[in-house]
Automatic annotation (TrEMBL):
This is Aminotransferase. GO terms for molecular function: pyridoxal phosphate binding; transaminase activity. It is an enzyme of class 2 (transferase). Its cofactor is pyridoxal 5'-phosphate. InterPro entries: Aminotransferase_I/II_large, NHTrfase_class1_PyrdxlP-BS, PyrdxlP-dep_Trfase, PyrdxlP-dep_Trfase_major, PyrdxlP-dep_Trfase_small. It comes from the Bacteria. Pfam families: Aminotran_1_2 (PF00155). Keywords: Aminotransferase, Transferase. NCBIfam families: PRK06836.1 (NF005305).
């Protein structure tokens, strides 16, 4: 017999992937331009040119055995130094390269972190709606995922509910801002309030509670006044799980890092547990070529103006049509209230108009659909009449 949990995970397709595959089949039947696929959060803007220029330079100039060889397991020291120098300068913090661990993207950062901090039965709080893989990573690491819904009016933290949900077993809380799937950003006052609640709970229970800050969308914000606070500045026991997948459009190359906040209690112990978890999960080291690329691309992003245009057009048009949407400050998703209670039925109904929208249940909350607007702007324009027909169909 194989491991039952692993079998079940491999056997259950993700709702998002299934919809994507359905879209491919529909395109073959009704034509590429007539299907409006909003399923997958795959960046649609190419990487900034500095990415390929740096890679070509490295391939031409760096000695091959070193370029393609193992780096140290925690990541190349010069790369970690460059990352920390950039972070310290950008966010006025005082982080340390010895507390940075290079990973294969945010998914690896998260699963390593969970395995590093969790003992059997420890609880991790996820604020719903949340990235569905949190449950997989937490439960496989022996933890219990406790779901705390956000406020429905703005998808910000419901602090009363959160305060009641924290117990002596709470080992951490995952925050993801800008958020997948809502696009909502937690601003400075929210992070400050969260920090003081967690500090009070640490005192009350005499425990350590970590903020796991899942940050693949950190740079994806569209208005000057939207500032994404650097969490280590506000709360000591912070572990940042970062990824370059979305900011420079490299999700297939698998590169990111974990940063243990310099003020984290027993930071070195936490870091060693991270290194041990990475080792036991078989990561060995993050891709060497992409590690060496990082010092040259820090501070660069893909051209985000296209996502901004997509967001503005979709948000305005759909709210004008009568859809209810939380205002998305960042990431590349819209979280839209379904027009009937059952989001699965609503998403099925939307297919009648060739609109592929992801039902919300796998994000830990019923009654919504997610729209990934990292799409060709022309497809978005073509899809607008379909959204109108869909809402009119419900008004009949
Ligand atoms: N966390 C969130 C919230 C995400 O949306 C994603 C990917 O979509 C990940 C983590 C995983 O990102 P990566 O591709 O860097 O593993």
């Amino acid at each position: 017999m194989v491991n039952e949990k692993s079998f079940l995970l491999g056997n259950t397709g993700s709702a998002i992937r299934e919809l994507f595959e359905y879209g491919k089949k529909r395109k073959a039947i009704v034509g590429e331009d007539n299907v409006f696929d909003y399923s997958i959060g795959n960046p649609s803007i190419p990487s900034p040119s500095i990415v390929n220029e740096t890679l070509i330079k490295l391939l031409k100039e760096k000695e091959a055995t070193s370029l393609h060889g193992y780096t140290s397991a925690v990541g190349d020291l010069n790369v970690r130094r460059a990352i920390v120098e950039y972070i310290n300068k950008t966010y006025s913090v005082n982080e340390k390269p010895e507390l940075v661990y290079m990973t294969c993207g945010a998914a690896a950062s998260l699963t390593i972190t969970m395995n590093a901090i969790l003992n059997k039965g420890d609880e991790i709080i996820a604020l719903a709606p949340f990235f569905p893989e949190y449950r997989v990573f937490c439960e496989k690491a022996g933890g219990v995922l406790k779901v705390v819904p956000c406020r429905k009016e703005d998808f910000q933290i419901d602090f009363d509910l959160l305060a009641k949900s924290i117990t002596k077993n709470t080992k951490g809380i995952i925050i993801n801002s800008p958020n997948n799937p809502t696009g909502v950003v937690f601003k400075e006052d929210t992070i400050k309030k969260l920090a003081s609640l967690l500090e009070a709970k640490e005192k009350e229970f005499n425990t350590d509670i970590y903020i796991i800050s899942d940050e693949p969308y950190r740079e994806l914000v569209y208005d000057k006044e939207t500032i994404v606070p650097y969490v280590t500045k506000y709360y000591a026991n912070t572990i940042v799980c970062y990824s370059f997948s979305k900011s420079i459009s490299l999700p297939g190359e698998r590169i990111g890092y974990i940063l243990v906040g310099a003020n984290c209690k027993d930071a070195i112990t936490v870091y060693k547990a991270i290194a041990g978890a990475g080792r036991s999960l078989g990561f060995v080291c993050a891709p060497a070529l992409f590690q060496y690329m990082i010092p040259s691309i820090l501070g660069h992003t893909s051209d985000l103006s296209i996502y901004k245009k997509n967001r503005d057009l979709l948000y305005k048009t759909l709210t004008d049509y009568g859809y209810q949407i939380a205002f998305p400050d960042g990431a590349f998703y819209l979280w839209v209230k379904a027009l009937e209670d059952d989001a699965n039925k609503f998403a099925e109904h939307a297919k009648k108009f060739e609109l592929l929208l992801v039902p919300s249940d796998s994000f830990g909350m019923g009654g919504y659909v997610r729209i990934a607007y990292c799409q060709d702007p022309l497809m978005i324009e073509r899809s607008l009449p379909a959204f109108k027909k869909l809402i009119l169909d419900y008004k009949k």
